[in-house]
Specification:
By secondary structure, this protein is an alpha/beta fold. It folds into 2 domains: about 5-215, 3-Layer(aba) Sandwich (Rossmann fold), CATH 3.40.50.10490; about 220-300, Helicase, Ruva Protein, domain 3, CATH 1.10.8.1080. Helices cover about 50% and strands about 10% of the residues. It contains 14 helices and 7 strands. It has helices at about 25-35, 40-45, 45-60, 70-90, 105-110, 120-125, 145-155, 170-175, 195-215, 235-245, 250-260, 265-275, 280-285, 290-300, and strands spanning about 65-70, 95-100, 135-140, 160-165, 180, 220, 225. Strands 2-1-3-4-5 form a 5-stranded parallel β-sheet, with helices on both faces. Strands 6-7 form a two-stranded antiparallel sheet. Strand 6 (about 220) and strand 7 (about 225) form a beta hairpin. Helix 3 (about 45-60) crosses helix 9, helix 6 (about 120-125) crosses helix 7 (about 145-155) and helix 10 (about 235-245) packs parallel to helix 12 (about 265-275). The relative contact order is 0.12.
Length: about 300
């Protein structure tokens, strides 16, 4: 028997009193008032979030994958964040993955009973050949979803980095995760509807995790996405704009250097800022694991 009274996510919100009697403006005003609280709740957990990020980075290799795993809304949010990483940062679809209880069908149609099996969570990680080089982040607003618990237990058993994002205090999932993040957003405006504040909190944290990791592995320089793929004319022009903004070069010089760099944005940036040729830029980027931000900052400090 599950005692829902013990879950923070199942508490009733005083702001919901007589909500069914209110007009639409008052309903959404109350929702908005609750939503305003979420960022402040996340702020309280920034140290826990950064510890999880640092743990992933400390174990990071070219083979490392970041796996989000969850059920229902939490699972869908993980898939959303994972799916946006390839077009934003030029990484493979394998690098950041989202797994949901019940498989792909559950993305579009709820399969509520799929979350009840610990064994299925383990099996889904075995099916992607999880290794100790990977990181697994369990997503469960309640912090007790058996499917997610089974996945984290298996990830722990093979030595992978594990974390969790929950919205219930002292949850079971937090207890078995190496790097738990607990964001207590308080009762939802509709009791138990964790797609609302809890979902918003999880989305914010997933944004932080994937963005911070992509920045640290060199996908961003001075706030620009420097791994843009120049696969069509529009993207070539975007690449030129990024180079112009990060190097303060004019259009003509940028176009010339980008062509010399074989349309590689990072090489072009290094060539301009360090005043080096393509061959040297390529060699130096290889030395710095293709992290142009590190190359520019560290190389500039040495010269």
């Amino acid at each position: 028997m599950i005692d829902l009274n013990k879950l923070s996510t199942e508490e009733n919100n005083p702001n919901s009193k007589d909500i069914e009697l209110q007009d639409s403006f008052e309903i959404i005003r109350r929702i908005n008032e609750e939503d305003k609280k979420v960022a402040f709740c996340v702020e309280k957990e920034l140290k826990s979030i950064s510890r999880l990020i640092d743990a992933i980075l400390s174990n990071y290799t070219k083979d490392t994958r970041i796996i989000y795993i969850g059920a229902g809304t939490s699972g869908r949010l993980g898939i959303l964040d994972a799916s946006e990483c390839p077009p934003t940062y030029g990484v493979s679809h394998e690098k950041v993955q989202g797994i949901i209880a019940g498989g792909n069908e559950a993305i579009f149609r709820a399969k509520e009973n799929a979350e009840d099996s610990r064994e299925l969570g383990k099996e889904d990680l075995i099916n992607i050949n999880l290794t100790k080089n990977d990181a697994v982040i369990g997503l469960a607003a309640s912090g007790r979803t058996p499917y997610v618990m089974g996945a984290i237990e298996y990830a722990n058993s093979i030595g992978a980095v594990t974390g969790s994002i929950t919205c219930s205090k002292n949850s079971d999932l937090s207890g078995i995760s190496q790097y738990p993040v607990e964001v207590i957003v308080g009762p939802e405006i509709v009791t138990g509807s964790t797609r609302m504040k809890a979902g918003t909190a999880q989305k914010m944290i997933l944004n932080m995790i994937s963005t911070a990791i992509m920045i640290k592995i060199g996908k961003v320089f001075s706030g620009y996405m420097v791994d843009v793929k120049t696969s069509n004319q529009k993207l070539v022009e975007r690449a030129k704009r990024i180079i112009m903004k990060t190097t303060d070069s004019d259009y003509e010089k940028t176009a010339k250097v980008l062509e010399e760099a074989s349309n590689d944005v990072k090489s072009a940036i290094a060539m301009i800022l360090l005043n080096i040729d393509k061959k040297t830029a390529t060699e130096k980027l290889e030395k710095y694991d293709n992290n142009v931000a590190r190359l520019i900052h560290e190389y500039s400090d040495k010269t």
